[in-house]
Amino acid sequence: MPEKQPYNNRPLAVVEFLMLKINPHSNWEMHLLALMAKHTGVPQARMGFPPGWQSDPFWNARVAGGQT
Prior knowledge:
This protein has helices spanning 10-22, 28-38, 57-60. Residues 64-68 have low confidence and may be disordered. It is an all-alpha fold.
């Protein structure tokens, strides 16, 4: 059985949630996505990000114009 990869970027999800509570117009998640896209050599899996995490509705709903 393959080992399950942990989804350890929950602290970043908490930061995003709190940022939206503090400022509903925050674009912090767009800065995070841009930072991660800029540094493609950084092993995101070792940081706790599962493959395809950017397409998770939590992260891309507001970027695409929706709401979380």
